[in-house]
Amino acid sequence: MQTQPLTSTDAVPRKSGITDAAPKELAKPMVSIRGLTKTYGRNGRAVTALKDISLSIRHGEFVALLGPSGVGKSTLLRCLNHLVPPTSGDVVIGGENLAKLSKRQLLAARTRIGMIFQESNLIGRLPVITNVLCGRLATLGALRALTYSFPRDDYDRAVRALRRAGLDDEELYLRRADRLSGGQKQRVGIARMLVQQPDLVLADEPIASLDVKMQATIMDLIRGIARDDGITVVMSLHQLQVARAYATRIIALSAGGVAFDGPPGDLSDSIVQDIFDIDDEGLISGAR
Ligand SMILES: Nc1ncnc2c1ncn2[C@@H]1O[C@H](COP(=O)(O)OP(=O)(O)OP(=O)(O)O)[C@@H](O)[C@H]1O
């Protein structure tokens, strides 16, 4: 692996996505889903995770996807970048219908869609900086990608991203990723997303493995970055209060369909009670 000395470049927020895009592009929805259905085959049995979902998400929205375990939140997020191909229906991102793209075009489209995962999905044996650089892999040729030979600019970008994600201590950058705390890992995952310079971020339960204090820190960080860079966020969550505090829009899933879609202020306790069971810790624990 190639490891270059680290520079001390200042963290400069990117003004892209909503700010860089031409007005015509902004008029189009960031995400448009039409008639999305996903059926998995399991042990010779069909499981329909999503049933005929249609919705649009505008540039700059912060959408919380709520619902009990198994309702289809991860499936919906993964259909949005075709990591899980829909059984039927269309997913249009920034005006591009993903089903109509060639493999190569789909890979290119995915470079503008960042992901943040519950367990951060870092490569434990690799140093922090290399994990962040992995967000640039799609921009390298095949040989460079195989040997993790990143250009100098990418190292500078990775350092800036780590700083924006709240990791200032350069000693950490060369540490193996599996030697970090849960909160540090999540910050590295956010830095890896940042170097992709995405327009859209899909976050799958990014705070589920963190303590309450770190949950707030990570949510503040993601919201701040999304606002500064004009990034659209779609995030699955189990915590009702977190969704109410951070999202500009809540979409609640129930039985594979949309049970509620609106601003947090419209999701009254009585609507919540009609849709979900909430446990003592405020987590959505089941469907009504
Ligand atoms: N690869 C798969 N093969 C078969 N069934 C699957 C697969 N992935 C998900 N499912 C099923 O699809 C349904 C929706 O699962 P999904 O993981 O999208 O739900 P979720 O709301 O994200 O759950 P959680 O909150 O537990 O992550 C579930 O019934 C699940 O068992």
Task: Please estimate the helix content.
Answer: 25-40%
Number of helices: 10
Strand content: 25-35%
**What small molecules does this complex bind?**
adenosine-5'-triphosphate
Which segments are poorly predicted (pLDDT under 50) over 5 or more consecutive residues?
Answer: 1-19
Chain-averaged pLDDT: 89
Structural class: alpha/beta
Strand arrangement, major sheet: 6-7-8-3-9-10
Global geometry: globular
Provide the gyration radius in Å: 19 Å
Task: Walk me through what this model shows.
The chain has helices at 23-27, 73-79, 103-110, 128-133, 142-146, 152-164, 182-195, 212-229, 240-246, 269-275, and strands at residues 31-42, 45-57, 62-66, 88-93, 96-97, 113-116, 200-204, 232-237, 249-254, 257-262, 276-278, 284-287. The termini are far apart. By secondary structure, the protein is of the alpha/beta class. Helix 6 (152-164) packs across helix 7 (182-195) and helix 7 (182-195) runs parallel beside helix 8. A hairpin with a 2-residue loop joins strand 9 (249-254) and strand 10. It is built from ten helices and twelve strands. It has a six-stranded mixed beta sheet with strand order 6-7-8-3-9-10, with helices on both faces. Strands 2-1-4-5 form a four-stranded antiparallel beta sheet, with helices on one face. The model is unreliable at 1-19 (pLDDT under 50). The protein is globular, with a radius of gyration of 19 Å. 31% of the residues lie in helices and 25% in strands. Bound molecules: adenosine-5'-triphosphate. Adenosine-5'-triphosphate (ATP) binds at residues 40, 42, 47, 49, 67, 69-75. Residues 1-10 have a biased composition (Polar residues). This is Phosphonate transport system ATP-binding protein. InterPro entries: AAA+_ATPase, ABC_transporter-like_ATP-bd, ABC_transporter-like_CS, ABC_transpr_PhnC, MetN_ABC_transporter-like, P-loop_NTPase. It is found in: Cell inner membrane. It holds the Pfam family ABC_tran.
